[in-house]
Design brief:
Chain lengths: ~350, ~350
DNA sequence: CTATAGTTATGAACCGTTTCCAAATGGACA
DNA sequence: TGTCCATTTGGAAACGGTTCATAACTATAG
């Protein structure tokens, strides 16, 4: 089996290389039967155009770069997986890179991707306040952690949080606390804002309604600590429901409740955020706000490829979240006072 | 800033393009001072060779493909992250692909990577029994889930399991059960074998020592169910220690113990396998066998790149695991009989 | 001093496509 | 019949590097 090039195809089909090239690229100006003949030969020879030769001339690499802070964060892992699938749908491949949440490494990765001449870059910027310099002429879009000076696409964090807290309120909860994310994180702040939105508009009943939140990192252990803190108060002041800003926090919070002997969901409702796979595997299965990751990834990819308008800078595309009601939430028990009155 | 090519560098340095090329590729036959001068010009101009032009002629892409079944499995996520880092150390980039544990998709991904002319492929094959056809001439190495007909690199699963069970035995445990992985999975079987190795060589004391294991998928919920099963027996027959074949199983098992009111580690020791990040974040922090993921990834990459001998087919390179003693394990309480005799 | 070998540098050919311009063909129309 | 477009095809130039045969120069040996 000798190596086959476009020339072999052309010769065997009795046409010029240019014609074969046009067939390859679905160029309209080629006769139907010629096109068919060439395609037949291509199939027969099992010919595959060399992507390097192709990219060199055409300046299109069919490659998308994706840079994320840390793949061991299940949320980002899911994002990468969705992005790869979306890219594949547009017959692109994905070059993956990790920034380890380090602005210097991040800049380096970006430069590498530019050197690779990728067709676009998806980036979840690292947390340190910094500006990323997009290699100019190269479409770049931020995901999840939005930056003010770059186009972005993300979940509607504020709206999602509202849905969660609204749901808890409708269930009858009034003492709803919030484990907020780390200060300075854009998604964290949006989610907290959503929580506050609902809490401040809840009709004041007999019991005073006041927001109660505590900042914590997004991880499991921070969630546990925050949960322990919130639950360490007298029975009649203790929250009956907790909205956590990440599933990992929520899972940690579940553990904290468990340690205190508080039954879930009878004694405490917990709602998470993100919808990572783990949230549906634990016991009790976690009620959570699931981000439409597939949609987000698809939007990012098609924006980069120009098959969809790029979101305006400063006006990111937001995607609606959905509430997944599972086992960690329920209506609150009767108030202790009510019980006593019986 | 006009686009700069190798010609501009050559001209500015007063040498021929061929010379610049040789400097670029660290070819020995170029004088030290010429080399220095050229390098200076390269730096000055910020020149970056076009990877496509380069690859087209040289047939080297500096690209590594990696195909894994599912990125939402934290173990694979860590693998991918390590592989990317290792590849970067050899100035290669990584094209990531997910097979969704589907043999058909897997074959397609492999073909795509071959088309991309990557320099090598790392693959964690999907579980269904099938043979993967490596595009010939393209180095391919399996990781973790080894295949009989391809070179592979993995953790020493059997040895790692031995370390875990040995540790539990030395702690004084005798009724040590095992949550084995799914039947048919190579790593699962090796770990089970390691467990059996130790159990069958333990000196028989007063109490009869007999292996006890149950198969379960590697995930959290399966581990919980398996744990519940193993712990649902009379107090004096119940295992005092459980070795799980994955951290996810172990974490599920922790939950099962918790549901039964069994304190950890006082009433039950649990040891996991893998060393995923989550294992160190939960409460209690999980004692586990950690796989040297960075080493494994590095070995895979450098084998692919020919900087290290490719493992022989049928004789995979195995890497020593390490025991991370944390909070989920301790010596067993006195036997109930002993307590009664007091 | 010449022959021989060894080291560096040169520059043209080449890699496998895409792209562009020119040429061929065919039909409509005057 | 001759002109003028529109459509389709051919063929060569480009893309930006690497590689290789060759030349130029040095050093060593005879």
């Amino acid at each position: 089996m000798t190596k086959r090039g476009i020339k072999d195809v052309a010769q065997r089909a009795g046409v010029a290389v240019g014609t074969v090239s046009r067939v390859l690229n679905e160029h309209p100006s080629v006769n139907a039967d010629v096109r068919a003949r060439v395609k037949a030969v291509i199939a027969e020879l099992g010919y595959r155009p060399d992507p390097f030769a192709r990219s060199m001339r055409s300046k299109v690499s069919r490659l998308i770069g994706i840079v994320i802070p840390d793949l061991t964060n299940p949320f980002f892992a899911e994002l990468v997986q969705c992005a790869e699938r979306a890219a594949a749908d547009h017959s692109h491949n994905v070059i993956f890179m990790s920034s380890f949440d380090d602005a210097v490494k991040e800049a380096d990765r970006l430069a590498q991707l530019a050197g690779r001449k990728v067709d676009g870059i998806i980036i979840v910027p690292c947390n340190s306040p910094h500006s990323i310099k997009a290699p100019k002429g190269l479409p770049l879009i931020t995901v999840d952690r939005l930056l003010a000076d770059h186009p972005g696409v993300a979940a509607d964090n504020r709206g999602g949080a509202r849905i969660a807290v609204d749901y808890l309120a409708k269930l009858g909860h009034r003492r709803i606390a919030c484990i907020a994310g780390p200060a300075g994180s854009r998604p964290a702040e949006d989610r907290l804002q959503g929580y506050l939105d609902v809490m401040t508009t809840l009709p004041q009943g007999r019991a005073k309604i006041e927001p109660l939140f505590v900042n914590a990192a997004f991880d499991y252990e921070s969630g546990r600590a925050a949960g322990a803190f919130l639950l360490a108060r007298p029975r009649d002041e203790r929250p009956t429901a907790i909205f956590a800003s990440s599933d990992q926090q929520a899972i940690g919070c579940l553990r904290a409740a468990n340690d205190l002997g508080i039954p879930i969901p009878a004694g405490l409702s917990v709602v998470g955020f993100d919808g990572i796979p783990l949230s549906n595997l634990i016991t009790p299965r976690l009620t959570t706000i699931v981000q439409p990751m597939a949609q987000i990834a698809e939007a990012a990819i098609s924006s980069l490829l120009g098959r969809r308008d790029m979101p305006e800078v400063g006006k990111p595309d937001l995607f609606q979240c959905e509430l997944a009601i599972r086992e960690s939430s329920a209506a609150p028990l009767l108030e202790p006072t009510a019980v006593a009155a019986r």
